[in-house]
Amino acid sequence: MTATLNSQLHYRPVKLYDFQPPLEDFRSAVLEGLQRFPKSISPQFLYDKRGSELFDAICTLPEYYLTRTEVQLLQDHANEIATYLGNGALVEFGSGSSQKVRLLLDAAPQVQTYIGLDISRQHLYEACTALAQDYPGLEAIALCTDYTQPLPIAQIPELQNRHTIGFFPGSSIGNLEPAEAVKFLQNAAVLGDLIIGVDLKKPASILEPAYDDAQGISAAFALNLLTRINRELGADFDLSLFTYRARYDETFGRIEMQIVSLAQQTVHIGDAKIRFGNGETLRTEYSYKYTSDEFQMLAMAAGFQPIQVWTDAQQLFNIHYLKRL
Ligand SMILES: C[S@@+](CC[C@H](N)C(=O)[O-])C[C@H]1O[C@@H](n2cnc3c(N)ncnc32)[C@H](O)[C@@H]1O
Known about the structure:
Blueprint (H helix, E strand, L loop, with lengths): L1 E3 L10 E4 L4 H12 L4 E2 L8 H11 L5 H18 L6 E5 L7 H7 L5 E6 L2 H14 L4 E6 L19 E5 L9 H12 L4 E6 L4 H8 L5 H17 L8 E8 L4 E8 L3 E5 L2 E5 L4 E8 L3 H10 L2 E8 L5 E8 L1
The structure holds S-adenosylmethionine.
Keywords: Methyltransferase, Transferase
GO molecular function: L-histidine N(alpha)-methyltransferase activity
InterPro entries: EgtD, EgtD_Methyltrsf_superfamily, MeTrfase_dom, MeTrfase_EgtD-like, SAM-dependent_MTases_sf
């Protein structure tokens, strides 16, 4: 389904391609995840409107080195990255507030079309509209879909028969388990080459505060999932009976983010009864960390050839340029 939600404006109207999964998919994913042991729910459900706003707040935290390091890398290397962009379409996966891509668009004014792809529909549409206002020559398109599924390319004329390049910042690739990451990369390769931000392995003393900050914004972001389930699925989670933690598991090279039950309790979601033991966990996210070599192996397994990698002086973060084979 497509819709043009604004017209007669001084900027080009943003077209919305809406493939947002229905509420029923959310309900079945939540019930299935809560009946598993250990309990887990896919991180894509963290991003309702409030979740997207809380994530933006996380990006400004002193502990969250990821955003400022990746932004600095993009600033430092924008001109070089721009040489890879061509003049066709730039597709940003998990585009959120579409802030980082501005650095690329500033360096590559020849890009004709920007497609922001995100699961969080309202936030996506607002971000693409802000971009269209600030870049009046750019065709900005909002594509609301789940990037872990095959891309609906056949239904998007703007993606057909033209040079297209993908951009996947934020180290969101780390939310996927390695086999899922390869599958994502294979899907992305259908579009073309990919510029991707990947967080590097580092000590737990740096990683854990980044995902569990002193102000409690990361905790509010995770616990907002329970608020969303209460609101959208009619559940009765009592948020005062849950807390949040983030732990780095060095064996797997991943941060594990968990909601923890502070009591033995039963939660109702419609007719379903979900039991939590005292101390039982509900995983909301993984964030896998990769060395440059590890990530390049993953990319090669998905059909990309690593061409270039940019790293900051502190060796915190990588941006890779991957060429589709
Ligand atoms: C970690 S944030 C990164 C946002 C932004 N790209 C940045 O670098 O700051 C992840 C973004 O991906 C979106 N997202 C998460 N899972 C998704 C999925 N399965 N399909 C599409 N978008 C998803 C979220 O809504 C959110 O905007």
